[in-house]
Amino acid sequence: MSTLPVVFSAFQTRKMDLLSNKWIINLIFCLFFIGISCNSVENKIYVHLNYTIPCVRLLNATHQIGCQSSLSGDVGVLHVLESEANLDWVLQNGPNPPYMVILDSTLFTRSVMMKLKTGSSRVAGVVVVAPSSNPAEGFSPHTTCPNENSGVYSESYDPALAHCNVTKWNPLGNGLSYEEYDFPMFSLKDDNDTQAIKQCYYDHNHVVNGSSPRYPLCAMQLYSHMSAVTDTATCMRRNGINFSLNPETVCDPLGDFNVLASTRPLNYTDKGHKTGESVVIAAARLDSRSFFFDIAPGAESAASGFVTLLAVAHALRNATQDAQPNRTILYAFFQGETFDYIGSSRLVYDMDNKQFPLDLDNVHSVVEIGQVGLHGESKLWVHTDPVSRRNSSVNEEVEKLIRNLNSSALNLSLSLQEPSFSQPLPPSSFQRFLRARPIPGVVIQNHNSSFTNKYYESMYDNAEYLNMSYPPNLTPEEQLEYVTDAAKALTEVATIVARALYTQAGGSDPIQLKNINADSQMVTQMLYGFLVKSNNSWFQQIVPSDFAIHLRDRPTNFYVGVTQQHSEPTLLVQYLLANLTGTTVNITQDNCQNQREDEDDKESKHIYSYLWVQGAAPPNSTERVAFCVRSTVRLSKALSPAFDLEEYTSKNYSTWTESRWKSIKGRIFLVASHELEMLTLGVGVAVLIASLMLTYIISSKADILFSSGREPTAATY
After folding, report:
1. Residue-wise pLDDT tens digits, 217-258
2. Gap between the terminal Cα atoms of the chain
3. Which of 240, 532, 543, 689 to pair with 102, CA 20 to 30 A apart?
4. C-beta of residue 367 within 8 angstroms of C-beta of residue 380
């Protein structure tokens, strides 16, 4: 039998294998090309927005506030709102709803937003263009009575003082931050993205002489779908449902860490009351917020107070180390105070439940520094609580504290005054201590009754408002060193408070008292670092290398965030306070990071904290000289007790949570008319049906269409 047919068959098989491999390679190449082409087509269709800041959803014991989109994002035809009268086009007359409304900050008012909220069926979303300068008339999206239900002034404490009956602390508050919106809202900078959006609108959507715009129209899609709904109790219950292998968390409690330090070391393993220990608490808040998620500059509402307190701690460093006063000074920087006093209520709860090295019986008095930006003024106001002062012993100590403050202001340009005796305390952390028991204390502010801050809890409470201005043509390094008028004013405030605290703590050395002065150079550097850019040479020196890479060339965001992460201001204040009050110790990096002086040291970690920082580079060198700082600085949990107690409907503690989300983005594109879309769909369906029919016909006639002559069964070679 001949072997030629076998050889020929093998040759054909090998040829087919080669062809198959070639087809596979070609197919892979085509798929790769199609993928690139699809990406290229998408980029030609959509213009993605780069700097989008969303309004997010927050929840508490009773309701939800904030904004969200649908799961697939909300789409609307762009409309640039030029005046409030122009709202009729969006809400009634416009022929192409729903609309994506673009408005300048001057139209971001309660009147406009409530009309858009009411007509939300015709509103797909809102984009607010942030201005390059602050509005002269002021703007505050907070309420007129901040933390109304979580302070000390309730019906049971004094009905006449409850609900801001005596003083509306924030008269410009329009409450926008505490409304719920059924559509997404974003903030955009007034930059190239914004100009592209407006140009797209004027090219395609602008109404001329009352006539309707013609297709294609410019449209926008915003994604900000929120997972949590209803209230905190509902979302926390959903967090606990574990029916799947990958259970989904839909919300997280707001919270962070308080930053604490004391002039005497405290043993953090020994909780509860300390016999013979008396403590003066010097407090300030660390957080702020605005309507939008990632913009919370908090220059006046937060930074002016805590920067002053940091300067106070530095000014008292030598005086309290050389000769310890009788009482310990505890510096407390509270997080989450914007949201029903999260940080201060937690510290009071821990003290009351023997979860802290001190208890409330150890607290002698409280001095809180609030909004103290002076804006060219030369007067501070010392606020006290009229109810607790009905107790003669409390009143006597409060009067002594006020005298200490007044005597500390002698020979300085600032003066201190008291509001009327019947006026309650402004919103302050001190109120949470008074809820527990009568404690002597004062709150230092720059206002008598209503806030002088025109931009309370808004995106405009920034360096510009605090009068941080620099001469032109200064380099960033020169700006860091330049002592602004704002820094000079806060330095005087810090000097007054530091001297008063020294006296209040029992310090009696007149020479030491006279030498207590805050450092204006340090104050101006801190203001620059928090309110202009944290990525600067001084901050780089006092933080570890792994944190230094996270410093940014923009102002710090003072929004408290959620409990899973440390916020930037918390960590910066921790390292600043350690460097300003601690000492450099000559130990290895390993020992420093393991919280010990040497390998045999087992006790120091309970009393001190050790931080390894990267330091500065010597002249003519690029290598930094790192070192270890030993201090009494500690981080203390700033999580509302409601979440430990699982009391998600609590009226005593903060219950604020933040919804989780999967995607935050926005894009613009051109959209065709509905008729053209239906026509395109119809043509596509017709082509599909014709293709299926043609394929069926060809398949059924394949034996005729693709037949070929057969080779004879017996071939002769």
Report:
1. 999 999 999 999 999 999 999 998 877 667 789 999 999 999
2. 12
3. 532
4. no
State both tokens at 251: 């919300």
78 torsion bin: left (phi>0), alpha (psi -120 to 50), beta (else)? beta
Query: Would you call 182 helix, strand, or coil by DSSP?
Result: coil
How high is the pLDDT of residue 24? 58
Tokens 């208890």 belong to 359
Residue 651: how many CB atoms within 10 A of its CB?
12
Residue 715: C-alpha distances to residues 321, 588, 711 (Å): 112, 92, 8
Q: Nearest to residue 593, comparing CAs of 577, 618, 614, 622?
A: 614
pLDDT in tens, 379-421: 999 999 999 999 999 999 999 999 999 999 998 999 999 999 9
The sheet carrying 99-104 orders its strands as 47-48, 665-671, 217-223, 74-81, 99-104, 123-130, 185-189, 52-54
Short-list 218, 224, 42, 225, CA closest to 668: 218
Give yes or no for a contact between 629 and 574, defined as CB atoms under 8 angstroms apart.
no
CB 46 within 8 A of CB 668: yes
Nearest-angstrom CA–CA distance, 147 and 590: 45
The number of residues making up the chain comes to 717
Structure token pair of residue 329? 């000074």
- Helix 485-504 to helix 304-315 angle, to the nearest 10 degrees? 50
Secondary element (H or E) of residue 684: helix 674-700
Distance between CA 218 and CA 45 in Å, rounded?
11
SS3 label, residue 560? coil
How buried is residue 126: exposed, middle or buried, by Cβ count under 10 Å (0-12/13-18/19+)? buried
Strands (E), 64-199: 64-65, 74-81, 99-104, 123-130, 185-189
What is the dihedral angle through the alpha carbons of 96, 101, 106, 112, rounded to the nearest 10 degrees?
A: 70
Q: Which residues contact 597 (CB under 8 A, 6 or more apart)?
A: 585, 587, 591, 604
577 neighbors 286 (Cβ within 8 angstroms): no
Look up the pTM and report it.
0.90
Q: Name beta bridge partners: 218.
A: 670
CA atoms within 13 A on the CB side of 687: 6
Do 328 and 279 form a contact (C-beta atoms < 8 A)? yes
Q: Are 582 and 627 in contact (CB under 8 A)?
A: no
Query: What gap in Å lies between CA 294 and CA 267, rounded to an integer?
Result: 37
| pLDDT tens sequence across 420-470 | 999 999 999 999 999 999 999 999 999 999 999 999 999 999 999 999 999
- Residue 258 CA to residue 248 CA, distance in Å, equals 29
Q: Where are the beta strands (DSSP E) in 123-224?
A: 123-130, 185-189, 217-223
